[in-house]
């Protein structure tokens, strides 16, 4: 079920993770692309905009200002020829007007000339006036006067030849009478004037006189010319309505058009026209000006008449066309100058024929031919002669530079922007590349985190799984063990069955241990293993271990030797269970691969640098202390402090075996999980390969190292060191008896070579003489030798038929020299021949030395009872179990010395001696087995983490206690309990005295409870041997023999008098727990939830203030035991999950209420959750310990005891 | 009768217990419980188990009620019930019931209603089985006690 659940969880987890991953991937992929794209587009747009704007502004503003400038220029350009034109026209008008006025004046003067002479005079005057005017105006082409009678006077200036002529008609042709007719036909004068003049003109002969242009003197002869040949004389026809008229004329002799004006001269009465005055001006000068202007500014300018005839251009192209009828004005469209022609056409095309009607035209982009031009036209309004001026300027001239600049700027801008774009793109690319790289890294990181999370989750699942599995695996095992216990407790088993079942039970325990190993490993690997710090006796633990393994060793024919140096600290702080586990694994490993030979566990202490001084203490304490003290003083307080803190020891160990050894290449890998040096070993030796791995992790955890070291002989040498602290007071070496002065001689008759060797070396070191023997024959030989010599005083002639080897004999000789030596003979039971009955003979032989030496027997675990009985019968009371180590040896020596001293005091009391020996013997055996119990306890307890520290110290304490009072332990313990009980009660008196209200209530309890307690106590103490056995089966299923009985009985009532408040909501658990506790002698008060628990406690706290005495008086006689029952609790068992108020909350409240009082009621948590986090929470809220459901009997007892003892 | 019967019944009881252990219905906690029973509390196991049955039936009823609700959502309350059930089951050593409770709780933690229903079925089944077997056990025990009462005190 759990497995499936686990898988489902895992699947769920994976699914989620996959989704997450996909999202991440798409997220990062699109994001980086998007960023690149969008940023590039943005950049492009930005740069484009910038470029366009820059270009636009520079261009538009320049163009605009230039345009306005250009417009001004063109205007100016055009204005000037126009003003010149205007000038010309004006001057012409002025002249004409002047002429007119003068003529009128003259005519008034000579009104109605009557005679020819007067007529001639008039003409003369007119000629002079006219000349004056003509001479004053150099620009004038001609001035003409046409009289009514047809007479013509004219001055003409030929600009080409620079000649001036006077033209006049023949005077004779004109009579004065004509004037008369004029007067007659006033109304029709026009008609007659005209006809006459036409006629007259045709018939008239004109004369041309060259004149001096400056003076007007006649310089040549007059020559007749046909009328109207040279110049056109303005006649009446030009002034049809009697007002001034303008027109453009052409003449044969000039290639430029002429501007002629005509005005009629009225007679003074203003009734008729007497003459017509005409002024002709060449437009040549306008053309000149235009040319000049154009030379400076380039381009073309032309003037046309309203109809489109060219009047003046800035070019040299002819303005007139020669036709058969003489020169004629040319249309601008037909001009020979290409530009003018095209311009005129363009204007015509764009604005039609009557474009001149519109005042001004400004065209900026007229395309003429290949080039662009500005075309502007101006309209000049003159009466009867409207003029149009057109100016054509190539755009290039004005805007050329600007356009070029604009183009260049554009090109530069575009190229610059392209460059920027390119660089920007590269930048963006690089940038985004970095960003995307970072993104990728981030994505990777996220996925890594995810992976880590998953890994953590899976390891979480794993640990959960393991926790579940541990339960799943342990439960069947526990069931098996429980069933076996049932079987064992069944009386109807035969002996054989019983032993088999016991064997099965052992095996199951081993299997359980293996499971624990696996779980340990996983615990260590997941980092959850916490090493506890308790004081323990390392030497004793190792001895116990060797004891345990020696049983196996003997089966294997392997010798186990424990060789601890004397400088090993006795008490160290550390995790005893784990240390033992290390060595157990190492030894069992060695044992597995060693078929014959020996396994030596060596241990010595190596002081770490920081505590070098301190380390010396145990060795030569007394001597060095004064010196050391002074040294300390010199060094100051700093070192003192350091010394106190840093009493860390490096303890080095070697486990040396003579097994098959490990290949050097595998020296490292054997410490890996599931790794064995040779795959075949699993087949031959079994095992999982977990042991060494656990060892290494544990050793590393204790700050040490382990490695396989090189060894000379066959086998393996494991070297390891551990860093353990030694308590400051624990460094005190137990006071050893100085054996060297006791004149002891030890004969080691042991089969195991190594053990013997090491033991004899050590004995030598402490100043004892040793003789070694390895077999029976040697023993007998030495014995004979020794005691022969002794007795040789009496029996000199005895000859030794056995010859001793040289070193042995010298030893014997040395011993001979000693005064009054005491012999101790250590005999290995294996030296006796047990296969036959010879051993009895051998014993008998040894009996002969009984008085001379003390015998100590080394028994092995399978020594038959018969031999033991026999030995006991013969008075050999000093028996120890097989592996011989220092502690045992010391015990033996001490026993012997004590006995000798006793003997010295009262030589007669033989019986006493035997009882003493009996005590000692028992003591030794108890000691050995006691360890077993302790170790099994430890191994059980070690699964539950920190709480075992309590029990560890507990057992240790108990053991020590036991050591102090061997023998009557059972009674003693009960007595202790009773003593304690009464003491507590008497203490209670004080408080109960003051609470009148509660005593009555509790007195029932008192009465009910007390007799029960008493009877139970007495019962158990009286019928101890019986009930203890029964209890043993119940409470401590692992126990197998009588030896345990006293301990079990002790434990059975170990909670006598302890008052426990049980807060538990579950009625079943409540009942079970209370019964359990009551069985142990505790008084239990059960409450249903946390609130009640708090209330119950508050009652006491409040009650302490009350005073009550009266009731106390009533029961004065029995106070000591009876008024015990005011419920001040020694301990609270608190369920964690309860209705109304849970355990955590209740604990917090209790702790808070205690805060001022200095009280501290131990609170033990009870919880169904066996996870370490719950434990942490429990301890955090102020609970003192932690028990899991279902309640483990032993653990609970030890926990409660440790807590209550601490407070008591 | 006379003494022999008691031994037979004792053997029967052991056999039944062994069977229950083999099936995994009970675990060592039950043995501990039995060990707690002595002269001072002769009917302790029976008493505790009766409390357990009483308590469990209430819890089962509650659980079924909770699960049968139409709009069922109170998984937390169910978890509390289950924790209680688990606690009491494990303290009398009813291992299989406890295991089913564990599964049940897992289902309820995942808000898996179908799983919860299945687990409830299973739980009821296991509970009935346990109840029957324990009743049988107590029955034998009673008989044994009756038979043992026949014995003469000197036999002890």
Automatic annotation (TrEMBL), chain A:
<dbReference type="InterPro" id="IPR050736">
    <property type="entry name" value="Sensor_HK_Regulatory"/>
</dbReference>
<keyword id="KW-0472">Membrane</keyword>
<keyword id="KW-0597">Phosphoprotein</keyword>
<feature type="transmembrane region" description="Helical">
    <location>
        <begin position="35"/>
        <end position="57"/>
    </location>
</feature>
<keyword id="KW-0808">Transferase</keyword>
<keyword id="KW-0812">Transmembrane</keyword>
<feature type="compositionally biased region" description="Low complexity">
    <location>
        <begin position="942"/>
        <end position="953"/>
    </location>
</feature>
<feature type="modified residue" description="4-aspartylphosphate">
    <location>
        <position position="1135"/>
    </location>
</feature>
<dbReference type="Pfam" id="PF02518">
    <property type="entry name" value="HATPase_c"/>
</dbReference>
<dbReference type="GO" id="GO:0000155">
    <property type="term" value="F:phosphorelay sensor kinase activity"/>
</dbReference>
<dbReference type="InterPro" id="IPR005467">
    <property type="entry name" value="His_kinase_dom"/>
</dbReference>
<feature type="region of interest" description="Disordered">
    <location>
        <begin position="937"/>
        <end position="967"/>
    </location>
</feature>
<keyword id="KW-1133">Transmembrane helix</keyword>
<dbReference type="InterPro" id="IPR003661">
    <property type="entry name" value="HisK_dim/P_dom"/>
</dbReference>
<dbReference type="Pfam" id="PF00512">
    <property type="entry name" value="HisKA"/>
</dbReference>
<dbReference type="InterPro" id="IPR001789">
    <property type="entry name" value="Sig_transdc_resp-reg_receiver"/>
</dbReference>
<dbReference type="Pfam" id="PF00072">
    <property type="entry name" value="Response_reg"/>
</dbReference>
<keyword id="KW-0675">Receptor</keyword>
<protein>
    <recommendedName>
        <fullName>histidine kinase</fullName>
        <ecNumber>2.7.13.3</ecNumber>
    </recommendedName>
</protein>
<keyword id="KW-0418">Kinase</keyword>
<feature type="domain" description="Histidine kinase">
    <location>
        <begin position="468"/>
        <end position="726"/>
    </location>
</feature>
<feature type="domain" description="Response regulatory">
    <location>
        <begin position="1059"/>
        <end position="1204"/>
    </location>
</feature>
Automatic annotation (TrEMBL), chain B:
<keyword id="KW-0932">Cytokinin signaling pathway</keyword>
<dbReference type="GO" id="GO:0043424">
    <property type="term" value="F:protein histidine kinase binding"/>
</dbReference>
<keyword id="KW-0902">Two-component regulatory system</keyword>
<dbReference type="GO" id="GO:0000160">
    <property type="term" value="P:phosphorelay signal transduction system"/>
</dbReference>
<keyword id="KW-0007">Acetylation</keyword>
<dbReference type="InterPro" id="IPR008207">
    <property type="entry name" value="Sig_transdc_His_kin_Hpt_dom"/>
</dbReference>
<comment type="function">
    <text>Functions as a two-component phosphorelay mediators between cytokinin sensor histidine kinases and response regulators (B-type ARRs). Plays an important role in propagating cytokinin signal transduction.</text>
</comment>
<dbReference type="GO" id="GO:0009927">
    <property type="term" value="F:histidine phosphotransfer kinase activity"/>
</dbReference>
<dbReference type="InterPro" id="IPR045871">
    <property type="entry name" value="AHP1-5/YPD1"/>
</dbReference>
<feature type="domain" description="HPt">
    <location>
        <begin position="47"/>
        <end position="127"/>
    </location>
</feature>
<keyword id="KW-0539">Nucleus</keyword>
<dbReference type="GO" id="GO:0005829">
    <property type="term" value="C:cytosol"/>
</dbReference>
<dbReference type="Pfam" id="PF01627">
    <property type="entry name" value="Hpt"/>
</dbReference>
<dbReference type="GO" id="GO:0009736">
    <property type="term" value="P:cytokinin-activated signaling pathway"/>
</dbReference>
<protein>
    <recommendedName>
        <fullName>Histidine-containing phosphotransfer protein</fullName>
    </recommendedName>
</protein>
<dbReference type="GO" id="GO:0005634">
    <property type="term" value="C:nucleus"/>
</dbReference>
<keyword id="KW-0963">Cytoplasm</keyword>
């Amino acid at each position: 079920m759990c497995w499936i659940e686990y898988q489902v969880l895992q699947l769920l987890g994976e699914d989620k993770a996959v989704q997450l991953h996909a999202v991440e991937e798409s997220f990062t992929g699109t994001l980086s692309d998007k960023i690149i794209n969008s940023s590039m587009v943005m950049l492009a747009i930005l740069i484009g905009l910038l470029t366009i704007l820059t270009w636009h502004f520079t261009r538009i503003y320049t163009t605009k200002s230039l345009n306005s400038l250009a417009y001004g220029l063109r205007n100016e350009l055009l204005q000037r020829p126009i003003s010149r034109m205007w000038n010309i026209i004006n001057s012409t008008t002025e002249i004409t007007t002047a002429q007119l006025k003068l003529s009128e004046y003259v005519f008034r003067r000579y009104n109605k000339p009557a005679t020819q002479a007067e007529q001639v005079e008039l003409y003369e005057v007119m000629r002079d006036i006219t000349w004056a005017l003509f001479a004053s105006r150099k620009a004038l082409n001609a001035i003409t006067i046409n009289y009514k009678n047809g007479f013509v006077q004219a001055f003409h200036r030929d600009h080409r030849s620079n000649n001036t002529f006077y033209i006049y008609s023949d005077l004779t042709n004109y009579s004065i009478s004509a004037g008369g007719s004029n007067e007659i036909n006033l109304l029709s004068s026009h008609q007659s004037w005209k006809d006459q003049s036409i006629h007259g003109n045709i018939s008239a002969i004109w004369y041309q006189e060259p004149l001096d242009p400056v003076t007007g003197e006649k310089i040549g002869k007059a020559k007749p010319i046909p009328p109207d040949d040279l110049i056109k004389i303005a006649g009446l026809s030009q002034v049809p309505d009697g007002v001034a008229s303008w027109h453009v004329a052409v003449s044969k002799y000039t290639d430029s058009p002429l501007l002629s004006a005509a005005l009629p001269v009225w007679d003074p009465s203003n009734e008729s026209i007497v003459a017509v005055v005409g002024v002709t001006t060449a437009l040549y000068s306008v053309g000149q000006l235009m040319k000049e202007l154009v030379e400076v500014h380039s381009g073309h300018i032309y003037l046309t008449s309203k109809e489109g005839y060219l009047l003046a251009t800035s070019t040299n192209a002819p303005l007139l066309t020669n036709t058969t009828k003489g020169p004629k004005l040319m249309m601008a469209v037909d001009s020979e100058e290409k530009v003018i022609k095209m311009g005129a056409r363009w204007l015509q095309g764009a604005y039609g024929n009557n474009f001149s009607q519109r005042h001004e035209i400004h065209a900026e982009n007229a395309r003429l031919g290949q080039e662009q031009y500005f075309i502007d036209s101006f309209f000049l309004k003159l009466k009867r002669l409207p003029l149009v001026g057109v100016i054509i300027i190539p755009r290039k001239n004005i805007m050329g530079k600007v356009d070029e600049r604009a183009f260049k700027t554009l090109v530069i801008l575009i190229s610059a922007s392209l460059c920027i774009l390119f660089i920007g793109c590269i930048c963006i690319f690089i940038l985004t590349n970095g960003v995307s790289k970072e993104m990728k890294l981030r994505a990777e990181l996220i996925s890594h985190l995810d992976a880590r999370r998953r890994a953590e989750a899976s390891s979480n699942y794993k640990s959960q799984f393991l926790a579940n599995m541990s339960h799943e695996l342990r439960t069947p095992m526990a069931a098996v063990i429980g069933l076996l216990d049932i079987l064992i407790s069944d009386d109807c088993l035969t002996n054989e069955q019983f032993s088999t079942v016991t064997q099965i039970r052992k095996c199951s325990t081993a299997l359980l241990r293996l499971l624990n190993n696996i779980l340990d490993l996983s615990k260590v690997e997941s980092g959850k293993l916490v090493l506890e710090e308790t004081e323990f006796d390392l030497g004793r633990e190792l001895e116990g271990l060797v004891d345990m393994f020696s049983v196996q060793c003997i089966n294997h024919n392997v010798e186990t030797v424990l060789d601890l140096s004397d400088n090993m600290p006795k008490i160290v702080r550390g995790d005893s269970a784990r240390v033992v586990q290390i060595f157990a694994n190492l030894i069992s490993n060695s044992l597995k691969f060693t078929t014959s030979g020996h396994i030596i566990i060596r241990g010595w202490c190596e002081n770490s640098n920081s505590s070098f001084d301190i380390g010396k203490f145990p060795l030569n304490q007394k001597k060095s202390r004064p010196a050391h003290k002074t040294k300390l003083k010199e060094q100051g307080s700093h070192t003192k402090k350091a010394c106190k803190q840093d009493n860390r020891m490096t303890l080095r160990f070697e486990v040396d075996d003579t097994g098959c050894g490990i290949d050097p290449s595998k020296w490292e890998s054997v410490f890996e999980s599931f790794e064995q040096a040779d795959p075949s070993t699993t087949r031959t030796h079994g095992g999982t390969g977990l042991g060494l791995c656990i060892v290494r992790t544990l050793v590393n955890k204790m700050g040490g190292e382990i490695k396989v070291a090189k060894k000379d002989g066959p086998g393996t040498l494991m070297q390891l060191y551990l860093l353990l602290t030694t308590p400051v007071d624990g460094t005190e070496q137990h006071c050893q008896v100085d054996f060297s002065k006791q004149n002891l001689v030890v004969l080691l008759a042991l089969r195991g070579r190594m053990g013997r060797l090491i033991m004899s070396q050590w004995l030598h070191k402490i100043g004892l003489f040793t003789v070694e023997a390895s077999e029976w024959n040697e023993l007998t030989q030495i014995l004979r030798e020794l005691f022969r010599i002794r007795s040789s005083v009496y029996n000199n002639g005895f000859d030794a038929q056995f010859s001793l080897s040289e070193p042995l004999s010298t030893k014997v000789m040395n011993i001979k020299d000693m005064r009054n030596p005491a012999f101790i003979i250590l005999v290995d039971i294996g030296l006796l021949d047990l296969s036959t009955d010879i051993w009895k003979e051998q014993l008998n032989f040894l009996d002969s030395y009984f008085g001379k030496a003390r015998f100590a027997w080394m028994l092995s675990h399978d020594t038959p009872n018969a031999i033991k009985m026999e030995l006991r019968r013969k008075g050999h009371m000093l028996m120890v179990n097989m592996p011989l180590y220092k502690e045992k040896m010391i015990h033996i020596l001490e026993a012997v010395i004590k006995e000798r001293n006793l003997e010295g005091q009262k030589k007669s009391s033989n019986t006493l001696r035997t009882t003493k020996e009996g005590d000692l013997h028992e003591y030794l055996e108890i000691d050995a087995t006691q360890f077993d119990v302790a170790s099994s306890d430890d191994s059980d307890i070690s699964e539950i983490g920190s709480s075992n520290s309590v029990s560890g110290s507990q057992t240790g304490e108990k053991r020590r206690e036991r050591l102090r009072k061997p023998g009557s332990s059972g009674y003693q313990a009960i007595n202790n309990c009773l003593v304690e009980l009464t003491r507590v009660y008497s203490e209670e008196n004080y408080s109960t005295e003051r609470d009148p209200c509660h005593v009555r209530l509790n007195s029932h309890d008192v009465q009910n409870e007390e007799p029960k307690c008493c009877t139970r106590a007495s019962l158990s103490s009286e019928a101890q041997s019986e009930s203890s056995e029964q209890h043993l089966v119940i409470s401590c299923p692992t126990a197998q023999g009588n030896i345990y009985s006293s301990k079990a009985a002790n434990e059975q009532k170990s909670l006598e008098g302890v008052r426990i408040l049980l807060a538990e909501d579950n009625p079943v658990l409540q009942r079970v727990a209370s019964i359990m506790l009551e069985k142990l002698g505790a008084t239990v008060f059960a409450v249903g939830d946390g609130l009640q628990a708090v209330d119950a406690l508050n009652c006491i706290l409040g009650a302490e203030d009350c005073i009550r005495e009266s009731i106390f008086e009533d029961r004065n006689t029995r106070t000591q035991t009876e008024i015990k029952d005011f419920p001040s609790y020694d301990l609270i068992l608190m369920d964690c999950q309860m209705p109304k108020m849970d355990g955590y909350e209740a604990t917090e409240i209790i702790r808070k209420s205690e805060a001022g009082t200095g009280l501290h009621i131990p609170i033990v948590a009870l919880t169904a959750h066996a996870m370490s986090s719950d434990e942490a929470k429990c301890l955090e809220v102020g609970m003192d310990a932690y028990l899991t459901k279902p309640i483990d009997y032993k653990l609970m007892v030890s926990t409660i005891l440790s807590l209550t003892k601490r407070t008591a | 009768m006379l003494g022999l019967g008691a031994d037979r019944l004792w053997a029967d009881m052991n056999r039944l217990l062994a069977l229950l252990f083999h099936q995994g219905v009970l675990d060592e906690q039950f043995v501990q419980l039995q060990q707690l029973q002595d002269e001072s509390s002769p009917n302790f196991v029976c008493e505790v188990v009766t409390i357990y049955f009483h308590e469990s039936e209430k819890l089962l009823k509650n659980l079924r009620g909770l699960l049968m609700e139409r709009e069922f959502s109170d998984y937390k309350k169910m978890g509390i019930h289950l924790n209680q059930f688990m606690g009491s089951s494990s303290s009398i050593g009813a291992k299989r019931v406890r295991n089913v409770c564990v599964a049940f709780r897992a289902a309820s933690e995942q808000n898996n209603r179908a799983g919860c229903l299945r687990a409830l079925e299973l739980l009821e089944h296991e509970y009935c089985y346990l109840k029957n077997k324990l009743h049988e056990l107590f029955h034998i025990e009673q008989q044994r006690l009756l038979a043992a009462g026949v014995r003469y005190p000197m036999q002890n």
